[in-house]
Amino acid sequence: MKRPIIIGISGGTGSGKSTIASEIYKKFDEDCIAMIEQDSYYKDQSSMSFEERVKTNYDHPDAFDTPLLIEHLKKLMNGEVVQKPIYDFEIHNRKKEAITVEPRDIIVVEGILVFQDVDLRNLLDIKIYVDTDADVRIIRRLVRDINERGRTVDSVINQYLNVVRPMHLQFIEPTKRYADIIVPEGGHNKVAIDIINAKIRQLLHRE
Questions:
Q1: Are 127 and 181 in contact (CB under 8 A)?
Q2: What are 95-144's pLDDT values in tens digits?
Q3: What is the mean pLDDT of each run of 10 residues along the chain (207 residues)?
Q4: CA–CA distance, 144 with 122 (Å, rounded to integer)
Q5: Which pTM value belongs to this model?
Q6: What are 83-93's pLDDT values in tens digits?
Q7: Is the separation of the CB atoms in 14 and 139 below 8 Å?
């Protein structure tokens, strides 16, 4: 197989990254595209107590096992199957199970810091930054963390003010300058999604 097209989708928490990734995914046959979520590559914390794991700063680059993510992408590029980790945010650790990901023509890599590491960034053929207002992002994060991650309102707000916002300004927002495409308003921007899909199809038919 020829080298796959690797698409990086980044942006702040609640910006609509996952929605855009999902919209792109749905435009192609399942045997043509694979999804790699950076959230799956948070470091294994089995050596830590639950109390220690709760304190993890998930918005800092050091929270991610980036070398493993890079290794998996390179294997997929070489036509090899990988075992993508599964991260459980209720226990703040990886599960014992993994998800088998097979090589595909298109690989979508989605996460808040996929542009931050230069080695990871250099693997990306198309870099998309989803730019959404902070008030919209915090509301989306609040709903998600309460409904999907078993969090309380107070804990989400405190984490946002003390960790998420400072980390966004320090690490995530600056990576916008690496983007090939900046998409305002996330998954609601149908025009941008159509343009991105057209570019992917053009690259798929390259010689």
A1: yes
A2: 999 999 999 999 999 999 999 999 999 999 999 999 988 888 888 888 98
A3: 91 89 92 96 94 91 97 97 94 94 96 97 96 87 85 87 92 96 84 92 78
A4: 31
A5: 0.90
A6: 999 999 888 99
A7: yes
Dihedral sign computed on CA atoms, order 108, 109, 115, 118: negative
Smallest CA-to-CA distance from 78 within 147, 145, 139, 4 is with: 4
How far is 5 from 16, CA to CA, in rounded Å?
21
Which residues touch 127 (CB under 8 Å, ≥6 apart)? 8, 10, 115, 121, 178, 179, 180, 181
Question: Where do the structural domains in the chain lie, given as residue ranges?
Answer: 5-204
- Residue pair 19/37 in contact (Cβ under 8 Å)? The answer is no
Give me the CATH topology for the region 5-204. Answer: Rossmann fold (3.40.50)
Which residues have a Cβ under 8 Å from the Cβ of 136 and sit 6 or more positions away?
14
- ∠ CA 153-19-56 to the nearest 5 degrees? 45
